[in-house]
Structures are given as C-alpha cells and as structure tokens.
Amino acid sequence: MSGLCSERVAIVTGAGRGLGRAHALALAAEGAKVVVNDLGVGLDGTGTETGPARLVADEIVARGGQAIAHGGDIATTEGAASLIRTAVETYGRLDTLVNNAGFLRDRMLVNLDEDDWDAVVRVHLKGHFLPLKHAAAHWRAETKAGRIPAARVVNTSSGAGLSGSVGQGNYSAAKAGIIGLTLVAAAEMGRYGVLVNAVAPAARTRMTEATFAETMAAPDTGFDAMAPENVSPLVVWLGSAASAGVTGRVFEAEGGRITVMEGWRPGPTADKGARWSPAEAGEAALKLLAEATAPEPVYGAQ
Ligand SMILES: NC(=O)c1ccc[n+]([C@@H]2O[C@H](COP(=O)([O-])OP(=O)(O)OC[C@H]3O[C@@H](n4cnc5c(N)ncnc54)[C@H](O)[C@@H]3O)[C@@H](O)[C@H]2O)c1
Predict the structure, then answer these.
(1) Which residues cross the membrane (predicted)?
(2) Is the distance from the beta carbon of residue 199 to the nearest atom of ligand 1 less than 6 Å?
(3) In whole angstroms, what is the distance from residue 45 CA to residue 102 CA?
(4) Is 227 exposed, middle or buried (0-12, 13-18, 19+ CB in 10 A)?
(5) Is the CB of residue 207 below 6 angstroms from any atom belonging to ligand 1?
C-alpha cells in the first residue's frame, strides 16, 4: 500500500476503541503495518477482553492492510516489552509508537481514593514510559548497528494536563506528566533518530460521550467536528518520516483545528540581588502578577 507511512511499522496502544482505533486505521490507510494494542478494559480500567484489539486488526486486514493484535497491559514491563517485540518479530522493524491507552476515574480531590490516583497515574504515565523505554532501547540498538531510524513517538496528553480540569486531579497530573516526559524524551532520543511529540485531542468516544453528547454533524457539510477520525491525520503525519525536524512539541487537535500549544516560559521577573524578606517577596510577587498574563482557566472551574 502506498502512502505517507508505506514501509513503516507502527504500534498504537489502546487502539481497540475511540481515538486509538481511528489512529490505527488512519496509519494503515497510509500504508503502515500496524500492531493494534488493547487490553480491552472497562471505562474505569477494570476487566480485560482481547476482542477490541482483534476486531480493529481484522478491520485493517479487511481493508487490504496489514495488522496484528496485541492484548497486553502497556503499563507493565512484560506488556510493554512484548509489544515492541511483537512489532519487530512480526514485521522486522518498528518506526512509529503512538502512546494512547488510558482510562478515567474522576472524583473531586477530597473524595479521590489512593487506588483511583494510582490506577490513573499508572495507566497514563507509566503506560507511556514503559513502551517508550522499550522502543528507545530498540532504536538505540539500531543506531549502534549503523541503521539510523526515522523513528517517531506520538504521546497523548489532554487539555486537562495543560490547563487542569475540575474533578480530574489524578488525570490532570498524569497528563501534565506526559508533557514533561515528552520534552525529556525528545531531548534524549534525537541522537537515535527518534522524534517525540504530544497531542492533546478532543473527540467523542466512550470516555467523553457525556461531555460531547450534544455535538452533531453539521447539517450542511456533514462534517462531524467531534469524530475521533479528525485527530488522526496530525498523528499520522507526526508518526511519519515527513515530520522530520519536529520534536518536543505539543499540539491540540479537535475537529478541523490544529493548535501549537506554547508552554511555560519566564514572565515578569524581579531580582533584588539579595534575599527578600517574606513581606517584600509578597509585595514583589503581587507587582509581577499585575504585569503578568492571566492564566488559562481550569476546565470546569466556576
Ligand atoms: N476523547 C477525548 O476527548 C480525549 C481528550 C483528551 C485526551 N484523551 C486521551 O486519548 C486517549 C484515548 O482515549 P479515548 O477517548 O479514545 O478512550 P477509549 O476509552 O475509547 O479508548 C481507550 C482504550 O485504551 C484501552 N486501555 C486502557 N488501559 C489499557 C492498558 N493498560 N493497556 C492497553 N490498553 C488499555 C482501553 O481498553 C480502551 O480501548 C486517552 O489517553 C485519553 O486520556 C481523550
């Protein structure tokens, strides 16, 4: 199959449903051979079922592409290592890793159990780190063998990680952590030919059904702005060799809109050249805040 990703092998985690499924189908449509990972968990991360990953792999094959299902848990060393192994042993190489799997356990902080904290931080943050680590080890070995890969990693953050979201303290912290991980991975892995970026998507999936229930396709054009398939073209391009030179960046993608997100940078500053007293520090802080740009509102804040 010809296309932007022909000759490439891609992994998509959590690709049995929602955004991951759309990314896997879009990568395959551009010629990639795809390892479709999904543990098949419920909305809150409980249970397991191999069905979703197999169905998507079958769908790709039915459309004339190549795909294999992988049902492992990406937040375990065994799951992440076997995922990378599946790509290399089945198709002989790995070019693109799309980290996407995850789930929610929303609660206000006062009601958030330690278990809900651990489960959500684990699946998103560790679930990004472990596949990234095992893919990086593979690409470093390729580089050492004299084969410099045009490797790409696309991580999945969220507006919750960028601006915060009421009732999602665990999720917002994990998704903000993914931005930090993306920046470090981009800085460390460029020497192995690996470019690492992140997307913060918005789309109607089972995860966001309630939030986006009202959104419908435009009656005149038929364009459904909240379809997960709208996010995939940017993911495919970032996952292809065509995105050469782009690394350590964060994009929001929703409907027909792509936005480069510009991160923390120094704002107004004052230097006394000596230690402040607390009262002086407070006075200086208030003066600087008066000059500073107001922060983006937290999602769901009154
Ligand atoms: N839908 C949105 O608007 C939106 C917004 C911001 C961020 N996101 C992020 O996009 C990603 C995809 O979300 P979605 O909306 O498609 O949700 P979804 O529930 O439809 O799909 C997530 C998939 O991940 C799988 N999964 C969960 N834990 C796993 C594990 N340990 N190993 C392997 N697979 C696992 C699930 O079985 C599920 O099929 C998530 O990281 C989510 O946080 C989504």
Answers:
(1) none
(2) no
(3) 8
(4) middle
(5) yes
Strand-pair partners of 252: 200, 259
Decide if domain 9-260 falls under CATH 3.40.50.720: yes
Domains of the chain, by residue range, sit at 9-260
Q: Atom of ligand 1 at shortest distance to CA of 14? A: 24
Return the closest-CA partner of residue 93 out of 160, 124, 138.
Answer: 138
Residue 265 has pLDDT above 90, yes or no: yes
What percentage of the chain has pLDDT greater than the value 70?
99
Ligand 1 closest atom vs CA 99: 41
Is the pLDDT score of 215 beyond 80? no
Residue 210, pLDDT > 80, answer no
Sign of CA dihedral 77, 79, 81, 84: negative
Q: Please name the amino acid found at residue 25.
A: L
Evaluate: CB of 100 within 6 angstroms of ligand 1.
yes
Q: Is 146 left (phi over 0), alpha (psi -120 to 50) or beta?
A: left
